[in-house]
Design goal:
By secondary structure, the chain is an alpha/beta fold. The chain contains eight helices and 22 strands. Helix 1 (about 10-25) runs parallel beside helix 7.
């Protein structure tokens, strides 16, 4: 019986676990290792920051959904991987594996910009549940005494969507409260232009995003690198100083410490078309943990996003490759990854499609409509339902 270890309990980890059990049945001993006790539907974290969702609305207990599928769950911290011994070292034990799937997500590297971050810095972040809940408390205090809000992505960021969503959402909420005139909003991004998203743009995304920001009276500063944050000022590398009352910024991503020695200088894992490590053939990496080269060199460094949609597709491909190894069946064909993303815009939303995710593309599109906001709300409920029941094979 093949022993398969999975690091991470989010989109990639859960999908991998359920798909392995579905494809291999009793022919696999599956263990999922995660330092968190619950799955968090990360796309809804901006809504948590706004107070539009609570933790219980967007989380699932990992043990309760894994154990009925005969998948072992270890709530512990992975410390390192010894690929030559096929062993994972955790804070409580050592686990031998025949196959390893790395689905750890990112290390949020706040320390790369002085003053960045909610713990040791002066800005909020909405990339974890705890951060989003803290951001909501700060938002409520801000409403009592509003001022300038600065939002954006520092140099090295590879997930640009949440700052866009947050900027649109606070604009919509401030207008609903009839105090928008009290809050200048400045959007600062390392992208060469808004609508770039780290992937060279999507169709007419540059023009559409310029219009959307202009219509909402949100000032945009693109192609910017940030020198530091102080308690009341953003200092850009070009010498510009911007006072603010509230700030929310995406940090740079790096590979998680436990697996970063297996990766490139930023700690991301090099893989082939089936998400198999280019050196260690029994190790796979999916989602943020794997390495994708940017489509172009930008004046200020940017990374390539790996969305939940992309991560799920990667996990299914990796699992099919593992299953083909074990069963002797034909492995899956390498297919360039595509992306479909729904971006909330406060009182409307946009759908973004790219096939493949990096140019040149067969298809590329960004469209805005209230319908896509309804779709985003519906998808949140649908995805949580299917994960709760282990139905990872559903679309």
């Amino acid at each position: 019986m093949a022993k398969i270890a999975i690091l991470g309990g989010s989109f990639g980890g859960l999908t991998s676990a359920f798909e392995l059990r579905r494809l291999l049945g009793r022919n696999a001993d599956i263990t999922l290792i995660c330092d968190q006790k619950q799955f968090v539907f990360i796309p809804s974290l901006p809504w948590v920051a706004m107070g539009w969702r609570k933790a219980e609305n967007i989380t699932l207990p990992l043990k309760e959904i894994l154990v009925p599928k005969n998948i072992k769950f270890l709530q512990t911290t992975a410390l390192s991987v010894e690929p030559e011994k096929s062993t994972v070292i955790t804070s409580t034990d050592e686990l031998h594996y025949d196959y390893l799937i790395i689905a750890t997500g990112p290390y949020l590297s706040f320390e790369e910009v002085p003053g960045l971050g909610p713990e040791k810095g002066y800005t909020e972040c909405i990339f974890t549940l705890e951060q989003a809940e803290k951001a909501n408390k700060s938002w409520n205090k801000f409403l009592d005494n509003p001022g300038t809000a600065v939002i954006g992505s520092v140099q090295g960021v590879s997930c640009f969507g949440p700052p866009y969503e947050y900027a649109f959402e606070i604009d919509a909420e401030l207008r609903r409260r009839k105090i928008r005139h009290k809050v200048p909003i400045i959007f600062i991004t390392s992208e060469p232009y808004i609508g770039h998203f780290g992937i060279g743009g999507l169709g007419k995304s540059k023009r559409i995003m310029e219009d959307e920001f202009a219509n909402r009276d949100i000032k945009v500063l693109a192609n910017q690198a940030i020198e530091e944050f102080t308690p009341d000022e953003v200092r850009l590398k070009d010498g510009t100083k911007l006072p603010y009352k509230m700030g929310m910024f995406a940090p740079p991503f790096k590979g998680v410490l436990a697996v970063s020695p297996l990766g490139n200088p930023r700690g991301f894992i090099p893989v082939d078309g089936k998400y198999r490590h280019t050196k260690y053939k029994n190790i796979f990496a999916v989602g943020v943990a794997m390495a994708i080269a940017p489509p172009e060199q930008t004046p200020v460094p940017t990374g390539v996003p790996k969305t939940g949609y992309m991560t799920v597709k990667m996990a299914k491909t990796a699992v099919e490759a593992i299953a083909s190894d074990i069963t002797g069946k034909t492995p899956p064909v390498d297919i360039p990854i595509d992306v479909v993303c729904l971006m909330d815009m406060g009182n409307t939303a946009a759908i973004m499609k790219a096939k493949p995710v990096l140019p040149p593309r067969q298809e590329s599109e960004l469209k805005e409509s209230i319908i896509y906001r309804w779709m985003k709300i519906g998808f949140e409920r649908y995805f949580l339902w299917k994960m709760k029941h282990g139905l990872s094979n559903f679309p």
